[in-house]
Amino acid sequence: xxxxxxxxxxxxxxxxxxxxxxxxxxxxxxxxxxxxxxxxxxxxxxxxxxxxxxxxxxxxxxxxxxxxxxxxxxxxxxxxxxxxxxxxxxxxxxxxxxxxxxxxxxxxxxxxxxxxxxxxxxxxxxxxxxxxxxxxxxxxxxxxxxxxxxxxxxxxxxxxxxxxxxxxxxxxx
Length: 173
Hints:
This protein is α+β, with helices and mostly antiparallel strands. Helix content is 60%, strand content 15%.
């Protein structure tokens, strides 16, 4: 058993994924060879059982690390603004807030009145009719809400970053 932080665990997962990529690439290149009928074949070094076992071992390590991360995320709590939240709840809240922030960002960028770009409509007198689109909300309130959501996201992210760098949990690798 080894103690590690989430930051370290994720870097280890990346490293193991790169190692697995090496072995799968090697396997795909060396599992076949081509030879002419009238020549001595050059057979690449390849042991299916050994390569398969190596890949399975890497997969088992990644599985164990991800499981330990999930356990830590669902049980460890972080204080944010006087409220205790588990890491998995923080991740869910951040996804929700990011979605809301994107919507509010779109609203706050709109002008109170804008000309429609759908072209001109013609009235019965054949004169072009210009159409306008108007916002149906308090622009200042939306801007204020955008700032609140952004600030909440920042506080959650900072708390999560601190947790990822400092909180250690056991991993069986």
